[in-house]
Amino acid sequence: MYKIFKSSKYFHPLLWVLVLLIAGVVTDKPTLALSPSLNSSSAALLRNQETEYILNNITVDSLDTRLKLTNTDVVKTQERFIDPRLSISRRIYGLLGFSNRKAFDFLPGHPLIQELFYLVIIALVFFLALTWWGHLNYQRHQRRKIASEPGELAMIVKNSSDFIGIINLNYQLIFLNHSGKNLIGFSGENSLTKENLRDYIHPDDRYLFAAKILPTVLKIGDWEGEIRLRHLQTGAVIYTSAYFFLIPEEKTQQPTAIASVIRDITPLKQAQKNIIQTLAQEKAISEMRSHLLTIAAHEIRTPLAIISSSTGILQNFGDRLNTQKTQAHLQTIQQTVQRVTQLLDELMLINRAEAQNMEFQAESGDIIAFCRRLTEEIQTTTSKHRIDFSCSLDQQMSDDFFIVEFDQKLLRHILTNLLTNAIKYSLEHHLVKFSLTQGKQKLIFKISDSGIGIPDADQAKLFTSFHRGSNVGKIAGTGLGLSIVKKCVDLHQGTISVDSQVGKGTTFTVSIPAVFRST
């Protein structure tokens, strides 16, 4: 019942009505018993005009005895005298009483029944009084709670990990919590009100704020979405999830400021970006493998057909072929097998590179001897071209030794592909130049030919897997060689560049870092 009372706005009026009704029922006519010792003017003010009982001067100690002696008269007149006793210096001057002669005429005349009824009425009055007291106590508790809420709210705002700020309608900061200051790199040396909202919104999102966010907040009261901020010190982009809402004036409800609760989602955006990149890489690898299988099937099918044809001729007509033709078919088979082997090696290598299974492993070695040996190996594969190797090293020893640290496997892939391409795309009996020079903590390799050259339109995609120049014609190739070269150069933390003109030739320049060691 207490909860029902406290939840009603009519609690106080109802309570007073009940008290007045009960008082009216119990005290149809109030009666006061006075002592003759009071003067006539005082007694006249206090006496009941209808009924009056005058008691002789008695003391508090003899009150109970005197009441018993007059009990018969009291019962007959249906009067009841209850405290408070009107006394001065322990002398009784009167008793306050209530007359119920009219109100309780319907009750049986037995005093016990009337006494029980009085007890019920008194209990009800006490219950209502306690209920009222509880209601007042509840209101007091609520007022204390409300009074403490601003402090609790301030503590929440202060310790929140989110950006919480307030700007006026001129877009100037008037409040910013500690997390907000850290997020945008706000310096405590500057005045907060000098900072404008435009200063910490990323330039690319300022139009979004002015054209969409602000009009929406002013029109419907709030806006929620993503917006990029700018770090005031570093200029770094901060990706955030933001909620803007109006702060109205309490009486007029006119907007006075705009509050914002902003959460940094830069790590989430970075994770999303990484996932997208990973998915893109997986997709690229899948497409590459699919393309790889297509190219491999085509490139392997042609050599196998050549091998099959030469083998069939030798089997069926070998006894009728002269030695020269027989050797020509055998040489064709051998070259085709080498071509298939090279293709398979390239496929395996590009697959390892795409799967990031290739590693850089440097070791000390004589770079001059390495280049000369590689030149001799490639020279043996062709009799129609000549490779001219030269070196110019500042720290070259007298015995032609030059020890540096480099990855021999990666460098072999790089130089082999570039030298074989120079031979493949050059006219017969043309010179291929191969030079080695020294830069500042790096080695510089240059391979030049006077071949067909590379069109400008193809140079941008030159290191893309399976891409070939538009002018290669019927020259065999897979389009994987330069892609492998680029990946090996990257693993060696080097650079590669190309200078080419159609019909005049091409020069590739490769630079790789190296630690020089003299012996």
List segments where confidence is low: pLDDT < 50 over at least 5 consecutive residues: 1-10, 25-90, 95-106
CATH class of the domain at 359-516: Alpha Beta
What do the pLDDT scores average to? 75
Quaternary organisation: single chain
Question: Can you say what the CATH homologous superfamily of the domain at 359-516 is?
Answer: Histidine kinase-like ATPase, C-terminal domain
- Annotated CATH architecture of the domain at 359-516: 2-Layer Sandwich
The percentage of residues in β strands lies in 15-25%
Percentage of residues assigned to helices: 40-55%
Q: Return Rg in Å.
A: 54 Å
In short:
InterPro entries: HATPase_C_sf (IPR036890), HATPase_dom (IPR003594), His_kinase_dom (IPR005467), HisK_dim/P_dom (IPR003661), HisK_dim/P_sf (IPR036097), PAS (IPR000014), PAS-like_dom_sf (IPR035965), PAS_fold_3 (IPR013655). Helix content is 47%, strand content 23%. The chain is of the alpha+beta class and 519 residues long.
Chain-wise SSE layout:
Blueprint: H1 2-6, H2 11-26, E1 29-34, H3 40-46, E2 53-54, E3 58-59, H4 63-69, H5 71-76, E4 79-88, E5 91-99, H6 111-159, E6 163-168, E7 173-176, H7 178-184, H8 197-200, H9 206-220, E8 222-230, E9 237-248, E10 255-264, H10 266-317, H11 323-354, E11 363-366, H12 367-379, E12 386-392, E13 403-406, H13 408-424, E14 431-439, E15 442-449, H14 456-459, H15 481-491, E16 495-501, E17 505-513, E18 515-517
Parallel strand pairs: 1-2, 12-14
Antiparallel strand pairs: 1-5, 3-5, 4-5, 6-7, 6-10, 8-9, 9-10, 11-13, 13-18, 14-15, 15-17, 16-17
Helix pairs in contact: 2-6, 10-11, 11-15, 12-13, 13-15
